[in-house]
Amino acid sequence: MLNEQELQEGLSELSGWSVEEGKWLVKKYRFPSFPEAIAFVNKVAGIAEKMNHHPFIAIDYRKVTLRITSWNSGGLTALDINSAKDYDQ
């Protein structure tokens, strides 16, 4: 699990991500259309499968919210930071 300094350093490498409840990395994405939002979710699914690290995904028309945590570690880890970077690409 990341300590506070490591978490802040990781967040500084991300854009638009925040920490919620001390254990979730969260970001909301907005897309021009519903099909584009779904295409993004499909890309996230492919990345998550390769990493074997799956986010919670909420789809609300053109808005997609990703929530990431490492359950087995009890909080946020470098894997969560790396996942967020990959989703943003």
TrEMBL record:
EC number(s) on file: 4.2.1.96
Reaction equations catalysed: (4aS,6R)-4a-hydroxy-L-erythro-5,6,7,8-tetrahydrobiopterin = (6R)-L-erythro-6,7-dihydrobiopterin + H2O
The entry's keywords: Lyase
Matches recorded under Pfam families: Pterin_4a (PF01329)
InterPro entries: PCD_sf, Pterin_deHydtase
Ribonucleoprotein listed as a keyword: no
Membership in a protein family: Belongs to the pterin-4-alpha-carbinolamine dehydratase family.
Protein name: 4a-hydroxytetrahydrobiopterin dehydratase
Species: Cohnella kolymensis
